[in-house]
Amino acid sequence: MHMRFITVVFVWLISSLPVVCAHNLKLPAPVTAALQRAKVPVDALHVVIMETNGSQKTSAVLSHEATSSINPASLSKLATTIAALDLLGPTFVWRTPVYIDGPLRDGVLQGNVYVRGTGDPRLVVERIWLLMRRLQGLGIQKIQGDIVLDRSAFDLPERNPASFDGEPLRPYNAAPDALLLNFKSLVFQFVPDRAANVARIQVEPPLAGVQFPTTVPLSNTDCSDYRSSLRADWTDPLRVRFAGSYSTVCGEKVWPVAYPAPQQFAARAIAGMWQQVGGQLVGQVRDGVVPANLQPVFSVESPALSEIIRDINKFSNNVMAQQLFLTLSLQARGTGSWDTSREAMQAWWRDRIGGEVPVFDNGSGLSREERISALGLARLLQFAWSSPTMSELMSSLPVSGLDGTLKRSKAQSIAHLKTGSLRDVAGIAGFVDTANGKRLILVAVLNHANAQAARGVLDLLVDWTASQKP
What we know:
- The protein is an alpha+beta fold.
- It has 2 domains: 2-90 and 305-466, DD-peptidase/beta-lactamase superfamily (Beta-lactamase); 94-302, D-tyrosyl-trna(Tyr) Deacylase, Chain: A (3-Layer(bba) Sandwich), CATH 3.50.80.20.
- Helices cover 30% and strands 21% of the residues.
- A 5-stranded antiparallel sheet has the order 2-1-21-20-19, sandwiched between helices.
- Strand 4 and strand 5 (108-109) form a beta hairpin.
- Helix 4 runs antiparallel to helix 8 (305-314) and helix 4 runs parallel beside helix 9 (318-333).
- The longest helix is centred in the C-terminal third of the chain and has 16 residues, at 318-333.
């Protein structure tokens, strides 16, 4: 309440001040005061506020530490999604083709089924089920051979999901894959059954050969940390256990968890889903390559890119952003890899944005290596504003106080902003509606060990930006 009061009073005080050149305008006093309270030096804040059109000199409202190369965290998803809209187009879709290589007699396929991944970022449970049903629609009830998963579209090194922050079970750490199924994650749903004094557990997708508990005892504890109360045991990936209890007061909860043996996930998920729809498999699910002479019998199509980027930006989905990043080189060169996607992004930036080229890593911001300046992000947003796909990008950005990663924002103004957050990074970048009905670009990034403690600064800057009259 105290911070909100300061914001409202400050907006009222400065609303009548004229906008002056950026180099004559200091950081707003409430911003510097908030930085001091959080023990963050002013040079750790990097800000650009500028008009959507024009050069830096003619359109800048505020510029502070704007040219320093900084870690943008998930703000780098803006570069990935804007480049993808420009290079691939908003109607671009991923198609996952399915092949068969033997005769079909009386519902039995005398051969193999091949599924070739092409980088689809959202091949989730419902669409895996649809793939299996379409396979059955061909008349196949039993596969005498194998189901072969072709992941060759991406050329990627092995990655330990614990390598970034030691949290291998967090879905945001899932590694990209040409055949990415359900983000390599399980979804546990807990439903209290008070009559039986248990919470019933449903798990999706089904994994062949993996045992999951069907219930967990109820308790009367509070629900502040229900995940810890479950005392999950992941030591045996083939037998998941809950040694604790589930609080009655929690009601229904959904808990997504990255499968602890991610290299096995796709094969077990495909086998489990085929069994669930009533299919039989004599062979096994294994990795391989589609024979060159085969033609697909059908393909499962993803939602359009314009819809995919809403998931990426509104909810800051890391693995989806990485899939998109790798798709840029897959489409340009026939194989997706980190190095070729970095080269594609660098070439695109030089051609479309100009100026200093950022350091691109994996396209998601889940990185300690990516670097860009606040000014670079602002120029990227200027390009997006004048692009034919501006509306698609705008609709993908969280709205302050309403949805996505900005749902809990304390800003009182209307803004469409991508957020960025790592242990020592907090930032926002996007568009703010102003007092006179126009829009300004706002980029504000904190790079400091106390960045998270100073997040209120970002809300103050949103409201200050909204008070301007360009």
